[in-house]
Structure formats: C-alpha cells, structure tokens
C-alpha cells in the first residue's frame, strides 16, 4: 500500500489465539504489508486477557485491545469470570478501544440464556461507565440484544453488531439505534449468502465497518483456509464492487466509520 492511502482497519480479529502461535508476528507483518494497518482484538474470557494485552504490547500502534466475556463462555461461573475481567478493565481501560466481545448466542444452546442476558447487561453498563464502544456478538439473538441496549441506554451506548448475518428487518432495527454500526466480514462473499442482495439498498456505507473474525470465516477466494487480517482486502474489494464505489472512496468511508467508533492511533 502506498503511504498516501488510508489504511484498512480489521475491527474484529482473534490473532491472539492458539491458531496463530506458530507465525503470529508474520501474520501481523503480512497484514501491515497488505494495507491493513490496525487490528482490533476482542477478548474471549478471563483466560485470554494476558494474550490480548500482551499482543497489544508487542505491536503498539497496530494491535488494539478490548476486554469482555464472549457469550459462548458464559456458564454457571460467569460472575466469577466477569469479576476477573472487571479487575483487568479497571487496570487497562485507558488502553482499551472497546468492551468486547460481548453479547448473546442462541445458536448452540439456550442452557445459559438468562446468564448470557445478565452478563450482557452488566458489560453494557461497563461501556457506559468507561465511555467505551461495545463489540457485540448476536447470533440468532439480534432482537434480544437490541432490547438489552434499550434497557441499559440506547441514547448513550455505541458499538457494532459484529459479523452481521441477520435479515433485512433486523438490519433496519440495528440501524434504528442511533450510535451503532454493522460489521461485515467474509460471509458476504459466500455464494449462498443473502446479505449481498439487500446490503447496498439498506446499509449506508457510513454505518458499515469491516472485519475478518480471524481465524474464522475466511472470505472467497481464501475460504477453507485459516483466516487472517491480510484477507480483509478481499472483503474490502468485494464491498467496493458491490457498492459501486471507487477504492479510495470506500477506503476513506470505512476508515472514518472505524475511527468514529473506536479511539485508536495507528503508527
């Protein structure tokens, strides 16, 4: 990428996980070389805090941490896990760009539905306390997630519905929230996905941010391989064509959306 170009921002990437233990620094170097100059790191649970913060320390100005409890890790002991994450947040909130990854996941199991909802509302309150945006996981649970936001304070909360794969009506409901963005990743490039049929007419680029969700959901033509931040360029190129914009215009709009939501300073 030429220095004069605006960088791309991978707003959701788990490059701190074990899938990258053998080549993490090389993955980040490839990202920067490809023009993806910022990688945001949503935490998973209390055991991944050290990895998230350590990677941010290792690559300042490129990797930016978030802290939160992913809904898939909400079980009977969720309050203990939240307490540990809260301690870390108190220590590192001035370095964190958001609270995340938090939310609801009704796809795998409803066993801890009540606990997930309580954990979500607790962490939304943290976002208000520390004036941080939230990165939301809302699998098969978009409307309940919206209700939690309204309950805690939709007029003040801000954030993104990451990895959006909902319906057009759910998209419109998200956009009715005044300070929320929609995160689109490699799923939009899949041949059997319906997102492409209604995105352009319903999602203004000013409310769009992009992500990889690495190591998951590799876009075409990398589908089936481990995802990584450098693959964000394929999502960017696909959306640029879908929206019928020039690359420079789309790049500038995406950077503006990402930097409006998240407070980060790239190197």
From TrEMBL:
Question: CDD domains from the entry?
Answer: TatD_DNAse
**Keyword Hydrolase attributed:** yes
Recall the GO molecular function terms of this protein's record: DNA nuclease activity; hydrolase activity, acting on ester bonds; metal ion binding
Summarize where a divalent metal cation 2 binds, as residue positions.
Answer: 137, 162
Among Pfam families, the record links this protein to: TatD_DNase
Q: Which Gene3D superfamilies match?
A: Metal-dependent hydrolases
Q: Which InterPro entries match?
A: DNase_TatD-rel_CS (IPR018228), Metal_Hydrolase (IPR032466), TatD-like (IPR001130), TatD/YcfH-like (IPR015991)
Identify the residues that bind a divalent metal cation 1: 12, 14, 101, 213
- Signal peptide (from-to): none
Entry's SUPFAM superfamilies? Metallo-dependent hydrolases
Q: What's an example GO cellular component term for this entry?
A: cytosol
Keywords from UniProt, A to Z, are: Hydrolase, Metal-binding
Which family, according to the similarity comment? Belongs to the metallo-dependent hydrolases superfamily. TatD-type hydrolase family.
What PANTHER family would the database entry show?
D-AMINOACYL-TRNA DEACYLASE, HYDROLASE TATD
Q: What is this protein called?
A: TatD DNase family protein
């Amino acid at each position: 990428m030429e220095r004069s170009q605006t960088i791309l921002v991978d707003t959701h990437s788990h490059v701190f996980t074990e899938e990258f233990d053998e080549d993490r620094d090389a993955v980040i170097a490839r990202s920067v070389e490809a023009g993806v100059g910022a990688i945001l790191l949503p935490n998973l649970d209390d055991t991944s805090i050290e990895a998230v913060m350590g990677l941010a320390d290792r690559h300042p100005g490129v990797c930016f941490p978030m802290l939160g409890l992913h809904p898939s890790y909400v079980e009977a002991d969720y309050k203990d896990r939240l307490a540990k994450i809260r301690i870390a947040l108190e220590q590192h909130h001035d370095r964190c760009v958001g609270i995340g990854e938090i939310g609801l996941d009704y796809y795998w199991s409803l066993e801890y539905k009540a606990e997930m909802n309580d954990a979500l509302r607790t962490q939304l309150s943290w976002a208000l306390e520390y004036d941080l945006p939230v990165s939301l996981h809302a699998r098969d649970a978009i409307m309940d997630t919206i209700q939690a936001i309204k309950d805690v304070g939709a007029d003040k909360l801000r954030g993104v519905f990451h990895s959006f794969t909902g319906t057009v009506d759910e998209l419109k409901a998200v956009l009715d929230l005044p300070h929320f963005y929609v995160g689109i990743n490699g799923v939009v490039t899949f041949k059997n996905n319906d997102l492409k049929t209604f995105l352009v007419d319903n999602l203004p680029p000013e409310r769009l941010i992009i992500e990889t969700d690495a190591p998951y959901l590799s876009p075409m033509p990398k589908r089936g391989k481990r995802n990584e931040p450098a693959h964000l360029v394929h999502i960017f190129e696909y959306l640029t064509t879908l929206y019928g914009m020039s690359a420079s215009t789309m790049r500038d709009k995406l950077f503006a959306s990402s930097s409006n939501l998240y407070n980060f300073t790239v190197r």
